Amino acid sequence: MYELKKIGLNEKAIIKQLFKEVFTNEPWNDDWSYEAQLDMYIFDLIGQSFSLTYGLYDKDELIGLSMGYIKHWFRGTEYYIDELCIRTDRQGSGAGSFFISQIEKEIGKIGIKKIFLQTDTFAPAYEFYKKRGFIEEEGHVSFSKEV
């Protein structure tokens, strides 16, 4: 039914379309109306030598997306996921669980030992990750500052 594929710059148009479709709606409501900014962001995520992007397909249709990068750390190599999404109308169907499990299998084959990601505690994604065995990193905190 579903198929995991490693994707990249050749699929930029459909990546951008799915990303915008998911993240400009509830619960995120991100404003990606400035196309040049969106293009740069997508390129930052998928266009680097250390980028690792997976797509979840249902037949020929992209329904899931994981954009991140490989990070070599003292505890081992990690897959740091910056953005992960499932098309809104496919959420709750098991596609996300399948996607995560397939990503885990694929990265294990290339020696990656850990997935690291961040999400908001108020987002449905928070419970989704917890149910799939992700744990909150003790002592880890995110900081930001407007300049």
Structure, described:
This protein is α+β, with helices and mostly antiparallel strands and 147 residues long. The protein has a single domain (2-131), classed as Gcn5-related N-acetyltransferase (GNAT) (Aminopeptidase, 3-Layer(aba) Sandwich), CATH 3.40.630.30. Helices cover 32% and strands 29% of the residues. Strands 1-2-3-4-5 form a 5-stranded mixed β-sheet. α3 links the parallel β4 and β5.
At the fourth level of CATH, the homologous superfamily is Gcn5-related N-acetyltransferase (GNAT)
Q: Categorize the overall geometry.
A: globular
CATH architecture: 3-Layer(aba) Sandwich
Strands, total number: 5
Adjacency order of strands in the biggest sheet: 1-2-3-4-5
The assembly state of the depicted protein chains is single chain
Helix content: 25-40%
Describe the largest sheet: 5 strands, mixed
Determine the N-to-C terminus distance: 47 Å
Unreliable spans: none
Helical stretch tally: 4
- By CATH reckoning, the class would read Alpha Beta
**Helix/sheet category:** alpha+beta
Examine the coordinates and then state which fold CATH places here, giving the name of the CATH topology.
Answer: Aminopeptidase
Query: What is the alpha-carbon Rg in Å?
Result: 15 Å
Percent range for β-strand residues: 25-35%
Summarize this entry quickly:
With 147 residues, the protein is an alpha+beta fold. The chain is built from 4 helices and 5 strands, in the order βααβββαβα.
What descriptive keywords fit this protein?
147 residues, alpha+beta, Aminopeptidase, five-stranded mixed β-sheet, globular
Topology:
Elements (H helix, E strand, L loop, with lengths): L1 E6 L4 H12 L11 H12 L4 E8 L2 E13 L2 E11 L8 H15 L4 E4 L6 H8 L16
Parallel strand pairs: 4-5
Antiparallel strand pairs: 1-2, 2-3, 3-4
